Amino acid sequence: MARKSKDNDSHAHHYKRELKHLQIALVKVQRHLIQHGHRVLVIFEGRDAAGKDGTIKRITEHLSPRDTRVVALGKPSDREQTQWYFQRFTPHLPAAGEFVLFNRSWYNRAGVERVMNFCSEEQTETFLQAVVPFEEMLVKAGLQLIKYYLDISRDEQKWRLKKRETDPLTQWKVSPIDEVALKRWDDYTEARDQMLQRTEHAAAPWIAVRADDKKAARLNVIRDLAQRIECPDRDKHLAVPDPQIVCPYQHLPKGFLEHLTRRSAA
Fold first, then answer.
1. Is 257 part of a structural domain of the chain?
2. What total of structural domains would you count in the chain?
3. Residue 42: inside a domain, yes or no?
4. What's the confidence (pLDDT) of residue 266?
5. Which CATH number covers residue 236?
6. Could you give the angle at the alpha carbon of 142 between the alpha carbons of 245 and 101, nearest 5°?
């Protein structure tokens, strides 16, 4: 049975109008960022098919291509596997005036690499102990680090992964890992919760996004992002993000960390 669209013509028009308004706000923010030599790094993590690609596309669509970079690293080479884990990421960090977005990041080690046994438990633990000091060092050096985790329900992920297989425009995303993402949902959930809990820190807190509604998630991420980056002449009428969609991970509705809570109470 075909899935019915949630958007009627009025909703679609409102989305496009609001998206344009927010993208204009981002252009203004970036202009200030460039003029003052600020360095901004935004990390996007999340479940497979959570909407990272689409969100990043809407953020960067009208930004300066010279000063904006999207980094999506593939599988590490044999040589890179012998390096310090963070080494292959550091060349992509922003210089003065640059706005860089990581579509997945060093947090692969605490997520897909861990669940798929691409790294050992010892390597995962080493990462979890090292990543907070590493990020604190970056922030102390003047880099602004913003971290988003996009989360979706199991049913939504199943539907989106299935849609990839039949949509000729998204078939390039199909991966053998897709099927594993559903089969090992609970393993990914546990890895996610441990990662968020152990890598939360004041210099770069996690911002959780409930992304079952793609368009609402995109708009609210951009609202949040536009207000986090320093810009004295930002749009004062910019709406605040919906706290039911974008919030600190600890404030998510009951269920997100439910099994972790039960374990702590045991």
1. yes
2. 1
3. yes
4. 41
5. 3.40.50.300
6. 45
